[in-house]
Amino acid sequence: HQTSQARNPQLTMTAPASDVRFENRSLATAMWANLFMGAAGITASQLSNSDALMVDGLYSGANFFSALIAMRVASSIKKPADKRMPFGYDANESLYILFRSLVLLGVLAFAGLNSLRKIITYANGGEVPALNFGPIAIYMISRVLICLALALWHHFNWRKTGRRSEILKTEQTAAIVDSVISAGAGCALLSAPLLRGTPAEVVVPVADAIVVVVLALIMIHQPFG
């Protein structure tokens, strides 16, 4: 953030009212889209017995609450420096990004540990619920399309702010990452039945758990980054 300020001194000033307007309309769209995807993910998870869809739903739910906070942050940045914040309110942007990172870390940790537990249960002879692939296909395709549309919407509004908004840049990246995660998980899950009749057939019952663990390992650098 300091580096970007050095390149563009405008970032150290109070955010223009027009910037906040573009941020708020972008974040409002993302907020309700994530609420819908969160509810859809949890519902699809129950119908399909998929932990990967549950993780998607929880992540979207976390994004919904993050968007609520982000809208307050976007409004606070336009305030001038005062006794409470003598250097201005720009630091709230960095705190928001930190919050988003910690939420993502928590979701990934929960998902990875829960899936490892399922794999261990299966390895010890325990039963694992079979997947229902119909809801998985419908949900994943819908989610990827929604996330890509959100990324384009955030990018459009980010350009309207003169490429100044760190919040919208973060939201755009999050939407792209979300679409990649969903597409990867969907392809892996829907490809699992193709392993039947091959030496890898033994992993089909826990394909969902394996997908979640692999995705968690791939994405764990995001919150730390």
Keywords:
single chain, 225 residues, mainly alpha, 8 helices, disordered N terminus
Q: How many angstroms separate the termini?
A: 13 Å
Low-confidence stretches: 1-14
- Along the chain, the helix and strand elements come as HHHHHHHH
Structural class: mainly alpha
Q: Averaged pLDDT, please? A: 83
Would you report the number of β strands? 0
Strand content: under 5%
Main sheet: strands, sense, barrel = none
Q: Give helix % range.
A: over 70%
Question: What's the helix count?
Answer: 8
- Radius of gyration over alpha carbons? 20 Å
Shape: elongated
Task: Please characterize this protein's 3D structure.
The protein is an all-alpha fold. It has helices at residues 2-7, 17-48, 51-77, 91-123, 133-160, 166-191, 207-219, 221-224. Helix 4 (91-123) packs antiparallel against helix 7 and helix 5 (133-160) packs antiparallel against helix 6 (166-191). The chain is elongated, with a radius of gyration of 20 Å. The chain starts with a helix and ends with a helix. Residues 1-14 have low confidence and may be disordered.
